[in-house]
Each structure stands twice: as C-alpha cells, then as structure tokens.
Design a protein that fits this description.
4 strands; 7 helices; 2 domains; 4-stranded antiparallel β-sheet; alpha+beta
Length: 299
C-alpha cells in the first residue's frame, strides 16, 4: 500500500479503495440479478423444448391418423399393422430421436396397454392418477433425477375415445388381428372418457443450465475487464491532473520554506481546481517575497 507523508493514506489509494468497494457492491447486485435472469431464461428454454417435442408428437399422431391409417385399412383386415396407430407412430418417431439424444425422451405411458413397452412406470402412474383425480387438469410439469441427469417432464392426459374402444373395450369385440399380435390379457377394459395414460416428454436440464452458467461467466469476465480498464483510466487521469501537480507544488513549497529564492513558480497545469490552487500559491509566494524584501529594507 502506498502512503503519503505522515503515514496518511494517499489520494490514489483512497480513490481505488472507494472504486473497488463500489464495484464489489455493484457487481454483486448486478451478478445476482443477471444470474436470476439467466436462470429464468434457461427455464423458459427448457419449457420451450418440451412444448416443441409435445407438438411434434401430436403432429406425428395427426399425420398417422389422417394419412397413414387410411392407406393401411385394407391390409388391417388380415394383419394388424401397428404403423397405423397414431400412438405407435409418435413413439417410434421419438425412439429414433432418443437413439441420438438419449437425454431426450417421449412415451405414451399407459396403465393397461396392449403393447407392454408402453406400460407406465411408477412415477408416470402417479401422473396418470393425478390426471384422474383432477379431471380439469390438462398439463403437468415437474423435475426428476434420471441416470442421464436432472430432467424436466411435461405430461398431457390420454383419454379413451370412440376409436380407441374398437380395440380396447373388451377382448371379445377387439379385432382378431389385435388378439393375434398382442394376446387377450392386456389393453382391455377401457371406458369412454377415462384417463388411461399420459403423453410424457422429458428434456434435460443440464445443457440449458450449462449455457446459462457460460453466459454468466462471460458477463462476469466482461464486467471485471471493464472495471479494470476504468480503474486504470481513473488512476492515470488522477495522477496527471491532480497527484503530479500537487507533488510538484509540494516540492516547490519545501524549497521556498527553507529560503531557496531560486525555486521556480508553479506552472498552473492540470484541472481547473489545481490550476487555481497553483495560481493562488504563486500569488502567496510573490506576496511573501515582497514582505521579506520590505523587512530587509528597514534600517
């Protein structure tokens, strides 16, 4: 630490300490606000990804029902083709995505499916039960830990509609081709309007959080770089406009105080205040010289 005479703290050091304190407080408040904003943006990004996946699944279902199923209708009389089922098409579509992005997932989880791969897990069954308990609820979101890391899930209810009951009401009325493919033990007993399952998409949280953390570190580094540059500029300006002129004035004053008449006048440079101080110092010195000469001239 740099100190002036008498053990007092120098002006530059005082200014630097004040700037550092102000910067630390400002950076803390700004950092907290920025962090909160980035976290909210990450949450919105994850939610947008989940909604996009859900919309994509619904689009795959609609396309299969309107374009694929009619083309396969004739063949379905002799052989059941799961490719004509909207839920199957949407699931297969996302299984291919899952192969390349294992942390993204989609499932049409059902409590009593014909295809056992669609059977709901315990946590999915809880979601389905919640939809059953609250018929007015159309969407559920939440977070859970997975082997791939924390994920956000978005779920929508699957309700038994008229077309579903053609295959899922009872084994007795189900098409023989369905029984031949899946057997008569699973996937029956559905009632019109009942919640029988849920569409569930899972989106990883870690990637969005990593991007938010990277943006926060970049912001913090930029903030520190700007502060360091500002600190250098402030120190340079203070030194040139205040510290250096005042030190020069103090040196001249020391020479004058010991009677050195050859000491030059102070050159009024620097800021307006320092220049005014220098001019006042020079007037005082000239007045002092005149007073000394008058004293010396007396007999």
């Amino acid at each position: 630490m740099v100190f002036a005479g008498g053990g007092r703290m120098s002006l530059l050091l005082r200014v630097n300490i004040a700037l550092i304190v102000v910067f630390a407080l400002g950076a803390t408040l700004t950092g907290l606000a920025c962090r909160a904003l980035l976290e909210r943006n990450a949450e919105h990004e994850i939610r947008a990804e989940a909604e996009l996946m859900m919309d994509s699944a619904l689009a795959a279902r609609d396309y299969t029902a309107s374009e694929i199923a009619p083309l396969l209708h004739a063949q379905m009389q002799s052989q059941f083709l799961p490719q004509s089922v909207p839920a199957y098409a949407a699931t297969e579509h996302f299984l291919r995505l899952h192969a390349n992005r294992p942390d993204y997932a989609y499932q049409e989880a059902t409590l009593n499916p014909t295809n056992l791969r669609d059977r709901a897990t315990d946590w999915q069954a809880d979601i389905i039960q919640r939809f059953r308990n609250k018929p007015g609820e159309h969407e559920i979101t939440g977070e859970r830990d997975t082997p791939m890391g924390r994920s956000m899930y978005l779920a929508k209810p699957i309700r038994a509609e008229e077309p579903c009951l053609e295959c899922h009401s009872t084994a007795a009325v189900a098409p023989p081709t369905v029984i031949a493919r899946y057997g008569s033990n699973n996937g029956f007993g559905w009632q019109l309007g009942d919640v029988v399952g849920a569409q569930v998409v899972s989106v990883p949280i870690a990637s969005a959080e990593a991007r938010a953390s990277g943006a926060f570190r970049a912001f913090l580094a930029s903030l520190i770089a700007v502060f360091v540059a500002l600190l250098i500029v402030v120190n340079l300006v203070l030194y040139l406009l205040v510290v250096q002129p005042v030190r020069r004035m103090a040196q001249i004053a020391d020479r004058v105080s010991v009677g050195d008449a050859s000491a030059p006048e102070f050159a009024a440079r620097g800021g307006a205040e320092v220049a005014a101080l220098g001019a006042a110092f020079n007037r005082m010195r000239r007045s002092l010289d005149k007073a000394l000469k008058l004293l010396e001239a007396r007999p």
